[in-house]
Dihydroxyacetone kinase subunit DhaK
Amino acid sequence: MKKLINAPEDVLVESLKGVAAAHPELSVDLETHVITRAVPKDEGKVAIVSGGGSGHEPLHGGFVGHGMLDAAVAGEVFTSPTPDRVQAATQAVDRGAGVLHIVKNYTGDVLNFEMAAELASMEGIEVGTVVVADDVAVQDSLYTAGRRGVGLTVLLEKLVGAAAEEGRDLASVVDLAHRITANGRSMGMALTSGTVPAAGKPTFDLPDDQMEIGIGIHGEPGRHREPLAPAHDIARQLVDPILADLDVTGPAIVMLNGMGGSPLIELYLMYGEVSAMLEAAGVQIVRNLVGNYITSLDMAGCSLTVLKADDELLRLWDAPVSTPGLRWGM
Amino acid sequence: MKKLINAPEDVLVESLKGVAAAHPELSVDLETHVITRAVPKDEGKVAIVSGGGSGHEPLHGGFVGHGMLDAAVAGEVFTSPTPDRVQAATQAVDRGAGVLHIVKNYTGDVLNFEMAAELASMEGIEVGTVVVADDVAVQDSLYTAGRRGVGLTVLLEKLVGAAAEEGRDLASVVDLAHRITANGRSMGMALTSGTVPAAGKPTFDLPDDQMEIGIGIHGEPGRHREPLAPAHDIARQLVDPILADLDVTGPAIVMLNGMGGSPLIELYLMYGEVSAMLEAAGVQIVRNLVGNYITSLDMAGCSLTVLKADDELLRLWDAPVSTPGLRWGM
């Protein structure tokens, strides 16, 4: 295992120390692994909390800040954070207008956020929840009943974050979140496996001449393996399953995401491929992201996310955002 | 070789196609491989041109935009762009106030930019040049007389870009550039070699239990190899040679840069280590960058850059910038 780490069991806390050192605009609790804004949003606005296992950076901690999340709860690598920590984060950021929980659809996350929501509501905090399940690769998976939550989470955190900043109430923010989950889909692939520090070896063996199509973000199995193929063929295998599942002629926000170990020169090349295919299929790409936004440790590979857009979503997308991972307009 | 590419010889152009598709605010010439702003800066302002071999993305093309570069000239992977293309870029972005060439200190780049500057001056364009040679690892190298130009290039492009945007004249921008190169140093290391697409195999062999300290950004040899070590020891080997070379008690801008294949969770962990060591040595880190800014294809590893700061540099640092790779204040 070749990694820039000390003891494997210290990776999360030591990485959070770096986040704290680099970003004085964030408040990082090294005990609970909760990242919040150093300056909370105004009283009376809906707060947004997300979280999950670590290893997907910049998601979620890198998306805390104005226009996006109020708190991120970081579990150990690929391990859901406990309900008490999610509850503590919820309580810490509630500004009297309720809290939206953004949960990626993995069994542990769903259960723990559910329990946290119950605990919070016992404290008188109104909690709404959106479960992201955008991965068209598989119906059920190793860690999931139903589809896995992947890249759409990034776009959703941006969009509902902007809505909350506008002062919209919890019901309206929850409605928006559900509209986004209904209109976005993702599909990913891997060239190599990531390596969980505590495991010390790659999560799965992928021969030098093979790739895996439909991979999740934890090394859980995808649809199938096949011989390495040119970028053009890979792009086709990401685009087609999304278009088969989502009627998306018209405007869209598109993300070509890197899994952590693939360099930008390759991600742009892939974006060139997928954007041409999407446009040829009648998708009008009005906004895009290309880069590492939801990763799987040092896995090489990429994923594609497509979200149908309308004027409201574009207005929210263009609203100012200031986080370590996403920043514009301020 | 596991990469998201089609034919190796098409990587550069196909990646540029992706850049063009993703960034309508840039103008990408697929013939000359020159990236410029779609909307040029105002007449009468100094223009900034950089470039060099590809494979270091987002540098340089990802730093074209308001507050940073006016043009980037992309050579093939790890290959200097030809003088005629640098000259064409220079001519294209000159707004009547002269052009600054930012050149990383590699023999090919230095010669080609020199020749381009001569060609441009024959056309009546005033050209100033700054050669970045910030790498403390080695005195001469495989491709260099003198030190190599690495991470400081990123900070320099931001700072002189801001100065040019303010309307300062060429002599003043050149002076500033030289002040920056005199006050910044870098040191890098690799866990793995990157793979040049046309070569099809790693540039160098680094055994599973070894790392290389003092690596450049092209896989050229560093100072020495040694057994894999904890992040803390690696950080010490990046920090000490910089502090030995640069008297930097007081304010500084610090970048912990990823080489392309190392995920953000590791880069933040490394930033935690180096920032604590620098602060202990009397460096006051007033601004920082953590992420992939000047890479070496899919190499795993990182580099550290330290630049002594003063009020003027901080003002220029904080000035608005809007590029694919760096964006704030707008």
About this structure: The first helix of chain B runs from residue 11 to 22. The radius of gyration of chain B is 19 Å. The first strand of chain B starts at residue 26 and ends at 29.
